[in-house]
Amino acid sequence: MRTWKRWEDWTVVAMGLVMALTPIWAAHLGSSVPMMITSGSLLVLVGLVNLGGPNLYGIEIGALLASVVAIIIPGLGGFAGANVPAITAWAAGGVSLVVTALAMRPSINASHDHYFEMRRT
């Protein structure tokens, strides 16, 4: 796969940016500000690493874990409920989880093919 081309990774980056920037326009509840910024930044980071070096299976797992963290932070941070930060975290984490899961099979296949190609030479 070519670098900087996968729509799934761009989606993860976009979801991370939305999460990290949500405290600018949303009400501050509990510890939503640091948790949203940290979790959003983590999604941006794993998305950019995946974009720069596709077929890194370990980073795909990292993106899945970052997505799960984004989903659970409203409960951990005390801002779960019908409010903008919680809904944003759940939506961004859910979308990131789904698109990362979609990107995993091609990444696994490409990594597997690359490994066996190297073993033949």
UniProtKB/TrEMBL annotation:
Record's keyword terms, sorted: Membrane, Transmembrane, Transmembrane helix
TM region positions: 36-54, 61-81, 87-104
Superkingdom classification of source: Bacteria
UniProt name for this protein: Uncharacterized protein (DUF697 family)
